[in-house]
């Protein structure tokens, strides 16, 4: 009994303790109480989650902007030393905003996630030491290794290459005095004038945060709401809505440094410059419907094109040029050269060709090279210097911060093979995650005597070090505002529009119509028209018609009729047709058709044209089936004699989708491509299929023999697209 009584007391004591603990637990945390969960069972899981998360919800519908720690602030302009001065490191608002944005996504790039890269060489045309101390430009024939990465901006790594977008064009020069990066785009201007607005821009164009829709597209309310409220976007927007937003390939687009930089000579003299990469393949673009189809048919179109061109020995080339302007003329052209939304018309500052860049080697491993390459505008070399452009000033911080984020916080990403310079590295940076170097110097500080004072300080006069242009003067009161010299947002979009051909103008208008027709909010649509109307009343009226809205009255303050050279894509012929693609429509069951296809391929291949023979089934001489073929895969299409029955025959085949051969021909014609036929029967079938009579269209070639057709196709490829096939609005100005 005694033992049992003791046991009972211990049980009672434990029961009392557990009961007390239960009461405490209930008071402290109701979720630990089984009865609580039973009572909540009927509320439903979604309701429970909503209740739990309520205290974390943030409603921004009626509040002032605040910092991450609750202090009210404004965040649309960086803090600068004078209106046209440098951005200050003390600007905690900028650093907080851009640093938070830099770390939003890991490890994929927050922007420019979708891309392709290649190795190559830059060769200087001459010794340019009279204008810059940059070593890679210091001698005629001097060669410098490069790695170039092309990309879209808004889409994720899994998005399509042919989405309408600004395209990244980032070039690394592995110079003998350190890595130098030109981190630019295929469009010479940008949407915003101050880097502090970059998170706002990207948040507006990215997929909606509630449903992650749409991917790699700006045809939605938030993007155009931002565009219409931030008029500095108009110039870049017009470029992106033109063919520049949907290039034929990476090889057929130009590249630009966007910002104004400085060239500095050894003795410290400096001039303002703009970087230009001019494609030697010629400029070419897709048309919008073609780009949309390609996104579904072959999302890797641009990446595959670049790879194939290099593998075939036809690596692309660009001529690197600069526009040079005296420092005192930064405001001489009616706009501010520090404004990244402006171009310098070539008539005002001609291009000076510096050298040629050729890409000739594909990466061995995509991740190790293309994905891990980490560009920075801050990768600078002696002879080049920054300007006070507030977008550039912010990028100098943001890119380094972003690369730290992508490298999981480790500071040693420059030691990854693709990022390592060819010149030796000597400094006092030590340790950190991913440290690859074994430093023998045990005195990593400066100044020192125990290591003989090494590494020594390099500057303008000793060690050929980087130095800031001596004549850079910053003298102004601290301001959080853009310079009034940045205020004209509409004259240059109009200059761009005026400089296009009539059909290219129609393409631009159609692109805006497409995008704006997807908008749901009526006020956003009206705001868009208001901004466009400040550029052109004609464009605004033509967009308004498609939206079913009243056309605005002219707002002519910034209207003009000026034009400039070099902005049209289609106003000229291509200098080379090598690597362009021709589809030869044949019949796998007609020996004559296949023989003719073989002859066409032999003749066209002499010019480097890539020819694919299409038939019902694969066999010797047939490279693709009709079931796998599509007009997006070719820059021109030829019908062989003996294949005409595939176009006009009424019987469907189980070997390919109904009407596919004819669809390839019709789509090619509708998208402005050269189409051809060999022989009278094939010619009649072509004319019947596309609905055009012989002689009505120079891009429709019908020849009695292969030689005549080859000549016509080659001429058509140089023209690339026949714009007369595209409708233009009646009464268009």
Notable characteristics:
733 residues, alpha/beta, ten-stranded antiparallel beta sheet, six-stranded parallel beta sheet, 18 strands, globular, disordered N terminus, Catalase_clade2, Catalase_core, signal
What does this entry look like structurally?
Keywords: Heme, Hydrogen peroxide, Iron, Metal-binding, Oxidoreductase, Peroxidase, Signal. Pfam families: Catalase, Catalase-rel, Catalase_C. It is an enzyme of class 1 (oxidoreductase). GO terms for molecular function: catalase activity. The structure is a single chain. Helices cover 31% and strands 14% of the residues. A hairpin with a 5-residue loop joins β7 and β8. Strands 2, 3, 4, 5, 6, 7, 8, 9, 10 and 11 form a 10-stranded antiparallel β-sheet that branches. A 6-stranded parallel β-sheet has the order 15-14-13-16-17-18, sandwiched between helices. It is an alpha/beta fold. 45% of the residues are buried. The N terminus is likely disordered. The termini are far apart.
């Amino acid at each position: 009994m005694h033992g049992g009584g003791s046991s009972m007391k211990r049980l009672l004591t434990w029961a009392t303790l557990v009961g007390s603990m239960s009461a405490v637990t209930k008071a402290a945390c109701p979720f630990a109480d089984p009865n609580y969960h039973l009572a909540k069972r009927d509320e439903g899981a979604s309701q429970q989650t909503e209740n739990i998360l309520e205290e974390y919800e943030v409603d921004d519908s009626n509040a002032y902007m605040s910092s991450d720690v609750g202090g009210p602030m404004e965040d649309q302009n960086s803090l600068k030393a004078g209106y046209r001065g440098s951005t200050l490191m003390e600007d905690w608002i900028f650093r907080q905003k851009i640093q938070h944005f830099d770390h939003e996504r890991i490890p994929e790039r927050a922007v420019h996630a979708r891309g392709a890269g290649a190795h190559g060489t830059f060769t200087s045309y001459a010794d340019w030491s009279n204008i810059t101390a940059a070593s890679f430009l210091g001698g005629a024939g001097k060669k410098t290794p490069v790695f170039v990465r092309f990309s879209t901006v808004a889409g994720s790594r899994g998005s399509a290459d042919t989405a309408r977008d600004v395209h990244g064009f980032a070039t690394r020069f592995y110079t003998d005095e350190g890595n130098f990066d030109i981190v630019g785009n295929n469009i010479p201007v940008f949407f915003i004038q101050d880097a502090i607005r970059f998170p706002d821009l990207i948040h507006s164009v990215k997929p909606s945060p509630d449903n992650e829709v749409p991917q790699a597209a700006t045809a939605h309310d938030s993007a155009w709401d931002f565009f219409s409220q931030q008029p500095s976007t108009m110039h870049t927007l017009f470029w992106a809505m033109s063919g520049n937003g949907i290039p034929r390939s990476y090889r057929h687009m130009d590249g630009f440094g966007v910002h104004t930089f400085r060239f500095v000579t050894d003795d410290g003299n400096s001039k303002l410059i703009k970087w230009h990469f001019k494609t030697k393949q010629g400029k070419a673009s897709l048309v919008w419907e073609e780009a949309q189809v390609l996104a579904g048919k072959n999302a890797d179109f641009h990446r595959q094109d670049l790879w194939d061109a290099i593998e075939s020995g036809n690596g692309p080339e660009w001529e690197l040029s600069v526009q040079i302007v005296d420092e005192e003329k930064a405001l001489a052209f009616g706009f501010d050269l520090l404004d990244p939304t402006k171009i310098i018309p070539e008539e005002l500052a001609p291009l000076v060709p510096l050298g040629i860049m050729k890409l000739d080697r594909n990466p061995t491993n995509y991740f190790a090279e293309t994905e891990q390459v980490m560009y920075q505008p801050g990768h600078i070399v002696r002879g080049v210097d920054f300007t006070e452009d507030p977008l550039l000033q912010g990028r100098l911080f943001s890119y380094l911060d972003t690369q730290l984020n992508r490298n999981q916080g480790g500071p040693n990403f420059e030691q990854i093979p693709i990022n390592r310079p060819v010149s030796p590295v000597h400094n006092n940076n030590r340790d950190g995650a991913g440290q690859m170097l074994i430093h023998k110097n045990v005195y990593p500080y400066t100044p020192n005597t125990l290591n003989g004072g090494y590494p020594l300080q390099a500057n303008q006069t000793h060690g050929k070090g980087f130095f800031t242009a001596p004549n850079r003067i910053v003298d102004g009161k601290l301001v959080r505002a853009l310079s009034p010299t940045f205020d004209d947002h509409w004259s240059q979009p109009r200059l761009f529009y005026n400089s296009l051909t009539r059909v290219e103008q129609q393409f631009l208008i159609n692109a805006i119509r497409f995008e704006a027709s997807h908008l749901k909010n009526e006020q956003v649509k009206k705001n868009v028209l208001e901004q466009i109307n400040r550029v052109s009343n004609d464009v605004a009226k033509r967009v308004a018609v498609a939206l079913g809205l009243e056309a605005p009255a002219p707002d002519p303050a910034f209207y003009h009729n000026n034009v400039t050279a070099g902005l049209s894509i289609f106003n000229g012929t291509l200098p080379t047709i090598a690597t362009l693609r021709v589809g030869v429509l044949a019949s796998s069951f007609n020996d004559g058709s296949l023989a003719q296809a073989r002859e066409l391929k032999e003749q066209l291949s002499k010019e480097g044209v890539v020819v694919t023979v299409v038939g019902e089934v694969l066999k010797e001489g047939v490279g693709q089936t009709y079931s796998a073929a599509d007009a997006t895969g070719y820059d021109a299409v030829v019908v062989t004699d003996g294949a005409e029955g595939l176009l006009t025959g009424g019987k469907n085949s189980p070997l390919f989708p109904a009407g596919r051969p004819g669809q390839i021909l019709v789509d090619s014609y509708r998208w402005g491509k050269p189409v051809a036929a060999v022989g009278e029967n094939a010619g009649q079938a072509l004319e019947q299929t596309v609905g055009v009579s012989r002689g009505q269209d120079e891009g429709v070639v019908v020849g009695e023999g292969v030689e005549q057709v080859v000549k016509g196709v080659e001429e058509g490829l140089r023209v690339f697209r026949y714009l007369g096939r595209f409708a233009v609005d009646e009464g268009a100005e």
